[in-house]
């Protein structure tokens, strides 16, 4: 078995970052800055390595490792995998920047926090290149496992503990479902490599129903990662109980990981049963966007609103893949179109979602997102933060001034109409109208006059209404970079679309 | 890059820079920011005046632009930055730049509560970018992008500077019109997926029309409903009265003056242009809806007791005439629709300005409390009377041509259906006369009410009002007496469009 070590290089760097964080914490005790700095360096190095490996692929277009045959490799390194790896590393770096105020409070063990974040990244980097079911599920679990701890990492925070338990229980159940599905797929096809599963269809027609059931279970289990209905109920509790940077990481990196896994299983391995994949994903998409949007209408707390909105966004993410249901959506061209649309939407989405969380952290500190009414008058207190939040939320609603969200919506609808799924396009479009109702409510709150009733003088509310929160420069940089990237993507969407085209 | 192309870009870039400039100024330089913003709006107007009917490129299509920019933006979304101006879009572009300039100038003297006039001016300029972009876009996807740009700025104008019930009105506006624009999105990509191009010039060219008739009908229905929400067409108009009643004066002027025109323009240029066969099949339905809008709008107006609400409902009737013109699918009808659009923009803009002036002074818009305005504010009630009479379609003023030609086009089309619609529309025009005269009787004549007698010193026109209103009064007269000002530009492209449909 030949192993191309270069293909594994980003994984090595990510794993080394995790070890480095622990070592620095051990060698220079009490120096939080050194640990954070070393971790940030490692995360940046991971991103740079992934990009470097991607650019250095040469004419062959990919490197492989752990191969049994020409197509039976457990790990490949192609431009798509490199892009995914780099995106994960940048998101982890952003989450680390948002964590700085949290780490400074002393409520959180710094070395462990950084170690867990880097561990999660290691799983994410492997995920992009995984080409067999075991590698894929192990990578996804490596991505998720540290997050159970990160969600509940604040000392003495009961909400964090309950959030972590919720997350853990739902995650275990859905992983079990996914494993059952993987087992059935293996039984039906005799293969674990995605290419084997994709080519197994013709050999044993009597096993086709088994393969279909396995595929449905596998996809439903993986849908947990993107917080798609029906595996969505953990998201509001977990996001709201977790520290804000962890919630940001959950709703961006973890969700991106789920999308990659669903693409690999549903489309790359879906060959013989693409229609079943399409049906499953279409149902998940319609349920997610409708339920997410309707429940988000009634939310009072900022992070819960973002959580339900991210459930709805999961629906938009999966919607293009629903076109695989129609026979017109299963031509090679149409498949390329819907896959590219999903990836493009995911990339636009993570930028906007991260910008929204970063603005919330900048406005409120990194422990509690507060009620939506707490944001009254933010536009006067901190106009720049409010401006970023406006761009992010309107972008998530799919509207200008930031064009990124608009193009994301356009890409999804275009792919659906190109793939003969006009009904799904109409569902997406109508959901965009429901979605705007709550996004615009939050945006209007930012510009409303601050609440008139002042707090009684003896109350010691921490980040009280109207108080300026000092969060430090790393958060400022994260907010600024996210906002600039979101605005630039709006003017140059072609870059994202070309990146997404690597996934075809 | 030719001069024409530079001017096309200037039409979008100047207001965009002006908006950034006005928004970025600190609060203590509020007035300077408003002056700067107005200067940018004036420069945009100047750029619009640059265009004269140029020599059109020879071709077979329905769109032969005078000047054109075409560069790829996002090929993977079929999106090209393709702008162009022709005789159909030019009068609307000129109207947009003129009204925005007047509204910005009006803000120099009068900023509605809660102040922060520089942000209002910035939003007006952003709106201008979106509206001009819609009129200039020759790429369907670009058209859609600009169509969406105006949504939130208009929401903000209503929600921040509006009246007592502004939040609800603004939310209703934004959700309704987003509903329209998502249908537009689906319609646009139905067309793009079927034909493989988003180029309006190619799509309206009968030489390249590969869409099947079923698909055309599907796309046309989506597009027509999308534009009907924006126009707004009865029965999809219910967002309009609330938005107009609550919006600040300049918001109402822009909304009625040019924002609604995006709907009728889109119907003519995009829906009819791209799916002419389906348009021909749906024409009777459109005609019936248009006539219903005229009659319903008129009857509802007769029952209104609030000034701005009445004017808002009168827009429903006027847009009905415009739609009737489009629905006939004849050269005369298209001409009627275009001049009706322009006339409604000028006259209703003026009406909303005056209504805003009256509400500012008397602090009420209730007709019952405004009697006898003629005695304490003769100039104000004089302008109101002028605008109302222009709006009811008196020959010699701008409102006449659109309505008369629309009715004429219906008769010209012939047959029992269209003749009946023509008769009903003519009766609707009489209704317009009835409700506007009722408005004038209530407001300008009769015994003075307490709210009006208190106006003795404030009755005169203010400088800002003189600056903003006099050009509109002059334009009303000019378009009324010399309609060829508008019709001259549009004669050729309209004939080309009508020919494409019959081919």
TrEMBL record, chain A:
<feature type="transmembrane region" description="Helical">
    <location>
        <begin position="133"/>
        <end position="151"/>
    </location>
</feature>
<feature type="transmembrane region" description="Helical">
    <location>
        <begin position="110"/>
        <end position="127"/>
    </location>
</feature>
<keyword id="KW-1003">Cell membrane</keyword>
<dbReference type="GO" id="GO:0005886">
    <property type="term" value="C:plasma membrane"/>
</dbReference>
<dbReference type="GO" id="GO:0050136">
    <property type="term" value="F:NADH dehydrogenase (quinone) (non-electrogenic) activity"/>
</dbReference>
<keyword id="KW-0813">Transport</keyword>
<feature type="transmembrane region" description="Helical">
    <location>
        <begin position="163"/>
        <end position="186"/>
    </location>
</feature>
<keyword id="KW-0874">Quinone</keyword>
<feature type="transmembrane region" description="Helical">
    <location>
        <begin position="246"/>
        <end position="268"/>
    </location>
</feature>
<feature type="transmembrane region" description="Helical">
    <location>
        <begin position="305"/>
        <end position="328"/>
    </location>
</feature>
<feature type="transmembrane region" description="Helical">
    <location>
        <begin position="471"/>
        <end position="492"/>
    </location>
</feature>
<feature type="transmembrane region" description="Helical">
    <location>
        <begin position="213"/>
        <end position="234"/>
    </location>
</feature>
<feature type="transmembrane region" description="Helical">
    <location>
        <begin position="35"/>
        <end position="57"/>
    </location>
</feature>
<dbReference type="GO" id="GO:0012505">
    <property type="term" value="C:endomembrane system"/>
</dbReference>
<keyword id="KW-0520">NAD</keyword>
<protein>
    <recommendedName>
        <fullName>NADH-quinone oxidoreductase subunit N</fullName>
        <ecNumber>7.1.1.-</ecNumber>
    </recommendedName>
</protein>
<comment type="subunit">
    <text>NDH-1 is composed of 14 different subunits. Subunits NuoA, H, J, K, L, M, N constitute the membrane sector of the complex.</text>
</comment>
<feature type="domain" description="NADH:quinone oxidoreductase/Mrp antiporter transmembrane">
    <location>
        <begin position="130"/>
        <end position="434"/>
    </location>
</feature>
<dbReference type="GO" id="GO:0008137">
    <property type="term" value="F:NADH dehydrogenase (ubiquinone) activity"/>
</dbReference>
<dbReference type="GO" id="GO:0048038">
    <property type="term" value="F:quinone binding"/>
</dbReference>
<dbReference type="Pfam" id="PF00361">
    <property type="entry name" value="Proton_antipo_M"/>
</dbReference>
<feature type="transmembrane region" description="Helical">
    <location>
        <begin position="421"/>
        <end position="440"/>
    </location>
</feature>
UniProtKB/TrEMBL annotation, chain B:
<keyword id="KW-0812">Transmembrane</keyword>
<dbReference type="GO" id="GO:0042773">
    <property type="term" value="P:ATP synthesis coupled electron transport"/>
</dbReference>
<comment type="similarity">
    <text>Belongs to the complex I subunit 4 family.</text>
</comment>
<keyword id="KW-1133">Transmembrane helix</keyword>
<keyword id="KW-0472">Membrane</keyword>
<feature type="transmembrane region" description="Helical">
    <location>
        <begin position="379"/>
        <end position="411"/>
    </location>
</feature>
<dbReference type="Pfam" id="PF00361">
    <property type="entry name" value="Proton_antipo_M"/>
</dbReference>
<protein>
    <submittedName>
        <fullName>NADH-quinone oxidoreductase subunit M</fullName>
    </submittedName>
</protein>
<dbReference type="GO" id="GO:0016020">
    <property type="term" value="C:membrane"/>
</dbReference>
<dbReference type="InterPro" id="IPR010227">
    <property type="entry name" value="NADH_Q_OxRdtase_chainM/4"/>
</dbReference>
<dbReference type="InterPro" id="IPR003918">
    <property type="entry name" value="NADH_UbQ_OxRdtase"/>
</dbReference>
<dbReference type="GO" id="GO:0015990">
    <property type="term" value="P:electron transport coupled proton transport"/>
</dbReference>
<feature type="transmembrane region" description="Helical">
    <location>
        <begin position="336"/>
        <end position="358"/>
    </location>
</feature>
<dbReference type="GO" id="GO:0003954">
    <property type="term" value="F:NADH dehydrogenase activity"/>
</dbReference>
<feature type="transmembrane region" description="Helical">
    <location>
        <begin position="6"/>
        <end position="25"/>
    </location>
</feature>
<dbReference type="InterPro" id="IPR001750">
    <property type="entry name" value="ND/Mrp_TM"/>
</dbReference>
<feature type="transmembrane region" description="Helical">
    <location>
        <begin position="417"/>
        <end position="437"/>
    </location>
</feature>
<dbReference type="GO" id="GO:0048039">
    <property type="term" value="F:ubiquinone binding"/>
</dbReference>
<feature type="transmembrane region" description="Helical">
    <location>
        <begin position="250"/>
        <end position="271"/>
    </location>
</feature>
<feature type="transmembrane region" description="Helical">
    <location>
        <begin position="88"/>
        <end position="108"/>
    </location>
</feature>
<feature type="transmembrane region" description="Helical">
    <location>
        <begin position="466"/>
        <end position="489"/>
    </location>
</feature>
<dbReference type="GO" id="GO:0012505">
    <property type="term" value="C:endomembrane system"/>
</dbReference>
């Amino acid at each position: 078995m030949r192993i191309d070590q270069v293909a594994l290089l980003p994984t090595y760097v990510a794993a080394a970052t995790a070890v480095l964080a622990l070592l620095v914490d051990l060698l220079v005790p009490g120096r939080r800055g050194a640990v954070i700095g070393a971790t940030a360096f490692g995360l940046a190095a991971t991103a740079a390595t992934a990009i470097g490996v991607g650019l250095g692929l040469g004419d062959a277009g990919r490197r492989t490792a752990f191969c049994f045959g020409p197509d039976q490799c457990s790990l490949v390194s192609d431009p798509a995998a490199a892009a995914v790896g780099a995106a994960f590393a940048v998101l982890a770096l952003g989450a680390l920047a948002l964590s700085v105020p949290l780490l400074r409070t002393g409520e959180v063990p710094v070395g462990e926090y950084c170690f867990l974040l880097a561990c999660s990244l290691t799983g994410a980097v492997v995920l992009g290149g995984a080409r067999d079911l075991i590698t894929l599920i192990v990578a996804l679990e490596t991505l998720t496992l540290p997050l159970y701890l990160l969600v509940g990492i604040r000392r003495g925070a009961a909400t964090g503990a309950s959030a972590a338990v919720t997350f853990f229980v739902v995650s275990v159940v859905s992983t079990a479902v996914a494993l059952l599905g993987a087992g059935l797929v293996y039984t039906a096809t005799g293969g674990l490599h995605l290419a084997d599963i994709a080519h197994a269809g013709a050999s044993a027609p009597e096993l086709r129903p088994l393969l279909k059931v396995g595929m449905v279970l596998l996809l439903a289990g993986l849908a947990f990662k993107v917080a798609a209905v029906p595996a969505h109920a953990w998201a509001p509790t977990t996001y709201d109980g977790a520290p804000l940077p962890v919630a940001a990481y959950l709703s961006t990196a973890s969700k991106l990981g789920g999308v990659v896994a669903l693409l690999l299983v549903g489309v790359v391995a879906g060959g013989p049963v693409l229609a079943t994949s399409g049906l499953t994903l279409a149902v998940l998409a319609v349920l997610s966007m409708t339920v997410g949007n309707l429940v988000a209408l009634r939310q009072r707390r900022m992070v819960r609103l973002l959580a339900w909105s991210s459930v709805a966004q999961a629906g938009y993410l999966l919607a293009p893949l629903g076109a695989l249901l129609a026979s017109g959506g299963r031509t090679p061209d149409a498949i390329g179109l819907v896959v590219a649309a999903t990836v493009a939407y995911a990339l636009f989405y993570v930028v906007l979602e991260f910008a929204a969380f970063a603005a919330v952290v900048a406005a409120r500190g990194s422990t509690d997102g507060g009620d939506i009414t707490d944001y009254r008058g933010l536009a006067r207190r901190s106009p720049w933060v409010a401006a970023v939040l406006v761009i992010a939320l309107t972008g998530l609603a799919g509207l200008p001034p930031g064009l990124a969200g608009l193009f994301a919506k356009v890409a999804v609808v275009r792919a659906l109409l190109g793939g003969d799924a006009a009904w799904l396009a109409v569902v997406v479009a109508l959901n965009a109208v429901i979605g705007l109702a709550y996004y615009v409510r939050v945006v209007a709150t930012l510009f409303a006059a601050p609440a008139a009733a002042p707090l009684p003088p003896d109350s010691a509310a921490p980040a009280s209404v109207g108080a300026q929160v000092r969060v430090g420069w790393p958060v400022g940089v994260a907010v600024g970079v996210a906002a600039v990237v979101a605005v630039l993507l709006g003017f140059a969407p072609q870059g994202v679309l070309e990146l997404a085209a690597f996934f075809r | 890059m030719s001069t024409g192309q530079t001017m096309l870009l200037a039409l979008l870039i100047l207001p965009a820079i002006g908006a950034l400039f006005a928004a970025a100024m600190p609060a203590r330089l509020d007035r300077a920011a408003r002056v700067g913003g107005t200067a940018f709006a004036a420069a945009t107007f100047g750029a619009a005046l640059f265009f004269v009917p140029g020599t059109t490129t020879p071709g077979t299509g329905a769109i032969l632009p005078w000047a054109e920019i075409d560069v790829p933006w996002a090929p993977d979304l079929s999106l090209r930055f393709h702008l162009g101006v022709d005789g159909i879009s030019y009068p609307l572009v000129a109207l947009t730049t003129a009204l925005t300039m007047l509204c910005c100038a009006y803000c120099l003297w009068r900023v509605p509560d809660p102040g922060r006039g520089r942000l209002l001016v910035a939003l007006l300029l952003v709106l201008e970018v979106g509206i001009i972009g819609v009129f200039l876009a020759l790429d369907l996807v670009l058209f859609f992008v600009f169509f969406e740009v105006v949504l939130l700025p208009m929401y903000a104008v209503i929600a921040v500077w509006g009246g007592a019930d502004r939040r609800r009105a603004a939310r209703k506006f934004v959700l309704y019109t987003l509903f329209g624009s998502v249908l537009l999105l689906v319609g646009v990509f139905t067309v793009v997926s079927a034909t493989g191009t988003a180029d309006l010039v190619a799509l309206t060219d009968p030489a390249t029309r590969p869409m099947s008739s079923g698909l055309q009908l599907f796309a046309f229905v989506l597009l027509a409903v999308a534009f009907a929400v924006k126009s707004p067409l009865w029965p999809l108009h219910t967002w309009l009265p609330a938005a107009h009643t609550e919006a600040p004066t300049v918001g109402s002027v822009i909304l009625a003056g040019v924002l609604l025109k995006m709907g009728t323009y889109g119907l003519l240029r995009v829906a009819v242009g791209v799916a002419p066969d389906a348009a021909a099949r749906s024409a009777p339905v459109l005609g019936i809806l248009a006539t219903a809008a005229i009659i319903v709008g008129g009857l509802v107006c007769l029952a209104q007791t609030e000034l701005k609400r009445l004017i808002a409902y009168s827009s429903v009737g006027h847009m009905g005439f415009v739609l009737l013109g489009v629905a006939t699918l004849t050269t005369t009808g298209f001409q009627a629709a275009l001049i009706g659009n322009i006339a409604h923009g000028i006259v209703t803009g003026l009406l909303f300005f005056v209504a805003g002036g009256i509400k500012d002074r008397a602090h009420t818009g209730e007709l019952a409390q405004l009697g006898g305005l003629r005695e304490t504010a003769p100039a104000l009630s004089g302008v109101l009377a002028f605008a109302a009479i222009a709006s009811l379609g008196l020959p010699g003023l701008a409102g006449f041509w659109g309505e008369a030609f629309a009715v004429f086009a219906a008769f010209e089309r012939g047959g029992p259906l269209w003749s009946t619609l023509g008769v009903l529309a003519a009766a609707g025009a009489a209704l317009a006369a009835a409700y506007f005269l009722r408005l004038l009787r209530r407001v300008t004549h009769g015994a003075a009410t307490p709210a009006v007698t208190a106006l003795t010193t404030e009755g005169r026109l203010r400088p800002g009002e003189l600056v903003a209103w006099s050009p509109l009064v002059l334009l009303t007269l000019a378009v009324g007496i010399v309609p060829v000002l508008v019709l001259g530009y549009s004669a050729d492209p309209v004939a080309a469009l009508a020919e494409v449909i019959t081919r």
